[in-house]
Amino acid sequence: MSLEQLQKEFIEFLYTAKPGEEQKNHIRSYFLDPQHSDPHNGLKIYRGNLVFGLIGAMKETYVFTRVLLGENNFNFFSRDFLYQNPSRDSDLIQYGGGFGDFLAGREEIQHLAFIPEVARLEWALERAFYAPPEPSLTGELPEIGRESKLRFKNSVRLVQSAYKIHKAWAGFTEKGVDGFEGEMFKKEPESLVVWSDEGSPRVTPVNEILMTVMKETMAGKTTSALVRSTGLSEENVREAYWFTLKQGWIADDFKSNLTDFHSI
Questions:
Q1: Is the pTM for the entire model greater than 0.70?
Q2: Any idea what DSSP says for residue 33?
Q3: What are 200-238's pLDDT values in tens digits?
Q4: Does a structural domain hold residue 123?
Q5: Distance between CA atoms of 100 and 51, rounded to whole angstroms?
Q6: Do residue 108 and residue 184 come from a single domain?
Q7: 148 plus 262 within the same structural domain
Q8: Closest residue by Cα to residue 17 from 42, 48, 45
């Protein structure tokens, strides 16, 4: 038995919601004398600590989501999520991505479909908070070549929601549970840019054109390819770039990415 195989089986045991006796005994045999029971029920305690630790980490990330679901429901869904999504990183800060997609697939809250959208926003905010600092491009935007690319800072995240969630999130952030109402979550598309303002996460609502330009740019499109694929005018793209420059979203390595200085 290799150490790699042992670790694999142990992790499978930890993330099995209800391990059977055969699996329990098999794992015990690696650590305990088969002739003696686990005197302090150590493996059960280990599993419990794992669950509580991961759920605790998710509570730190999904604060508003937790309020919307309620404590018991949040714990229930989080437990199901972690059994299906084992932690692959020793840093608990990295755990919890995809929880919004997971919630979107739960039939129990289909009538509350705005909650997964809130979870996606909160994950983006968490990533922005922990993103390493980067200098922003300052001054004038360089002449943009047709085959040039710009890069947004790693803290910049895009969130597209089928519901209006920004106002409710902002109200909750400012006033807690008294700062929002269920009626705020109107079923209307909303585009948000999440970014870090010197370490403080911010959320900026943007229009569809700006969201499209940023999304295509993040996908690696050159300026000329972006115009061709989206049908936007060159003026649309130029204005979008200027707005992102003023917001401080463009990374300072933009100039090094220019390959062709023909005017757009």
A1: yes
A2: -
A3: 999 999 999 999 999 999 999 888 888 889 999 988 998
A4: no
A5: 19
A6: no
A7: yes
A8: 48
Helices (H), the chain: 3-14, 21-31, 42-61, 63-69, 71-84, 99-104, 114-130, 166-175, 208-218, 223-230, 234-247
Query: 190 forms bridges with which residues in the sheet?
Result: 161
pLDDT digit string (tens) for 90-141?
Answer: 676 788 999 999 999 999 999 999 999 999 999 999 999 999 999 998 887 7
Residues above pLDDT 70, as percent of the chain:
74
Q: pLDDT category, 148, cuts 50, 70, 90? A: confident
Query: Within 13 Å of residue 219, how many CA atoms lie on the same side as its CB?
Result: 12
User: How many domains, the chain?
Assistant: 2
CATH code of the domain covering residue 243? 3.90.930
Burial class (CB in 10 A: 0-12, 13-18, 19+), 258: middle
**Structural domain of 79:** 1-112
